[in-house]
Amino acid sequence: MEIRCTKCATRYPSDTRAWVCEKCSGLLELFGIPSFDASKIDSNNSSLWRYRAMLPLPDKATPVSMGEGWTPLIPVRYSGRSILCKLDFLNPTGSFKDRGTTVIVSAVQAFGVRHVVEDSSGNAAASLAGYAAYSGLRATIYAPAHASPMKLAQIEVYGAELCKIQGVREKSAEAAQSAVRQEGAYYASHYYNPFFVSGMQTTAWEIWEQLRRAPDVIVMPAGQGTNLVGMYRGFEQLARGGYIEKLPRFIAAQSAMVAPLALAYAQGATEPVPVEPYNTIAEGIANSAPVHGLELLRIVRKTNGAAIAATEDEIRSARLKLAQAGIFVEPTSATAMAVLEKCLEDIAPDETVVVSLTGNGLKTPL
Ligand SMILES: [Zn+2]
Q1: What's the DSSP call for residue 74?
Q2: Separation of 5 CA from ligand 1 center, angstroms?
């Protein structure tokens, strides 16, 4: 297993401190990782580590697990339709990010790293802070000062050092990267680090095990694109192994306030459209320049899906409507429901729809 640049193929050791290619700034990927093999699922393990044999960890690494993954997939009545909701907000720190964090923290423990740095609007940082506390790592988090007070409190209560950065989301990333360069810490970025992305594949494998097939449509919030790209790769592995016949259609949900992917999709562009980094209640997807945008756009087109934006009012109303159906999520997750409503007429009544509900409603009071 090694890390390679996706643009120029420069090789890096798996414990590299680089987060993008040092020569060309290309994204880094893991190569030589195991393929999906259903016979290797440890069905006695009711966490995502049931897929231990398929997850890329350095030799001799021990999983750092708080029981993440293997979340419920339940039917929910919404807008007159029965849809399946993947309750990923029920992970140990209240968001889907724990899927990536458990992999990255397990890897860095094996590398002998003692200090991790991350920037996030809240969920990824809270996740890293929780797993750092659990495993005795030092964590420094850069988060926008305007992020949800509950998320900022969650980061601090776990004992991480929290640096609140004024300005838009991107300012926190700049501050984190500059600290990594100066202090030599490990950048446990939830959108650059390939170990993190690999943990996202497990959602696809769980949905497949829970349904015994692939759904027809998957709707999920998309910011940097990590969750969607990871889930797609999980399904792609299932298709390659002959476990499913066709890939689901992937629908990426964005906030109309920050919609570089939805705009690109509407305009037929292959790259995210440059947009202003405005604030939105869907703070978890307020990314004006999505790191995985190119791959995400390729995926939604290849699978006959879409990238669509919802307004702040549509997101608020979807959040309330879903809560009144029994499921309380944060606004970022509700964006997927708001976008689903816009797409319903393009989805046949007998098609299976799965919505990935990523963050707990308790993180963002109404
Ligand atoms: Zn490169």
Answers
A1: E
A2: 5
Q: From the CA of 271, how far away is ligand 1's center (Å)?
A: 19
The model's pLDDT over 30-73, given as tens digits with 9 standing for 90+, comes to 999 999 999 999 999 999 999 999 999 988 899 999 999 999 99
Distance of alpha carbon 102 from alpha carbon 225, whole angstroms: 19
* Distance in Å, CA 21 to ligand 1 centroid: 4
| Ligand 1 mean position, distance from CA 104 (Å) | 22
Rounded to an integer, the average pLDDT of 150-156 is 92
Non-local (6+) Cβ contacts of 251 within 8 A are 217, 218, 219, 220, 300, 305, 306, 307, 308, 339, 340, 343
Q: At which of 194, 225, 243 does a domain end? A: 194
Q: Is 245 exposed, middle or buried (0-12, 13-18, 19+ CB in 10 A)?
A: exposed
Q: Are residues 211 and 107 part of one domain?
A: no
Measured in angstroms, how far is the CA atom of residue 4 from the centroid of ligand 1? 8
**Centre of ligand 1 from the C-alpha of residue 16, in Å:** 14
pLDDT in tens, 313-340: 999 999 999 999 999 999 999 999 999 9
Handedness of CA 155, 158, 163, 164 (dihedral sign): positive
Q: Which domain CATH number covers 223?
A: 3.40.50.1100
**pLDDT tens, position by position, 244-262:** 999 999 999 999 999 999 9
Residue 108 belongs to some domain of the structure: yes
Same domain, 78 and 214: yes
Of 151, 168, 194, which residue is a domain's last?
A: 194
Q: What is the pTM of this model?
A: 0.96
Neighbours of ion ligand 1 (CB under 5 A): 5, 7-8, 10, 21, 23-24, 26
Q: How far, in Å, from the CA of 18 to the mean position of ligand 1?
A: 11
Q: At what angle do helices 123-135 and 149-157 cross, to 10 degrees?
A: 10
For ligand 1, the distance from its centroid to the CA atom of residue 98, given in whole angstroms, is 29
Residue 272 per-residue DSSP state: P
Give all strands of the β-sheet with 115-119 in edge-to-edge order. 161-165, 138-144, 115-119, 186-187
Helix (H) or strand (E) holding 75: strand 73-78
Using CA atoms, how far apart are residues 311 and 170, in angstroms rounded to an integer? 21
CA of 9 to the centre of ligand 1 (A): 6
